[in-house]
Amino acid sequence: MYLSSVVAGCFYCNVNISLGCLFFVSLLFLKIDKDGDNRVSPAELQSWMRHVQQESMDTETDRQWSEFRRKDPDFLAWDEYVQHTYKDNKGISV
Ligand SMILES: [Ca+2]
Predict the structure, then answer these.
(1) Residues 24 and 12 in one domain
(2) 22 pLDDT band (50/70/90 cuts)?
(3) Cβ–Cβ contacts within 10 Å for residue 33, how many?
């Protein structure tokens, strides 16, 4: 996938895209295109997806951790962790 084909696809499909959005898509494309050949390979896209997924997991882990720490900074009960993380507790025995 080439950047030019992404942009052309927006116009071809009559996607109403603002210049700001087009700029953002271009920057995103450049971030994904690790080797700078102006083409996003399946491997580069897969790597990007892994990166985004990992960032999302890290953010969620930090959020949950700060939530636990707010309740009691020195102690986290296993029951509380399981109840909070697996709210319906299906398949989890404590
Ligand atoms: Ca590339």
Answers:
(1) yes
(2) confident
(3) 19
Q: Could you tell me the distance, in angstroms and rounded to a whole number, from the CA of residue 7 to the centre of ligand 1?
A: 16
Q: What is the 74 CA–ligand 1 centroid distance (Å)?
A: 47
How far does residue 18's CA lie from ligand 1's centre (Å)? 25
* Number of structural domains found in the chain: 2
**Residue 68 C-alpha to ligand 1 middle, in angstroms?**
41
Shared domain for 35 and 47, answered yes or no, is no
How far does residue 58's CA lie from ligand 1's centre (Å)? Answer: 26
SS3 state of residue 93 = coil
| CA separation, residue 86 to residues 9, 13, 24, 57 (Å) | 42, 42, 36, 16
Determine the distance separating the centroid of ligand 1 and the alpha carbon of 2, expressed in angstroms.
9
- The residues that bridge with 39 in the sheet, in sequence order, are 2
Do 49 and 84 share a domain, yes or no?
yes
Read off the pLDDT of residues 29-68 as tens digits, 9 standing for 90 and up: 999 999 999 999 999 999 999 999 999 999 999 998 888 8
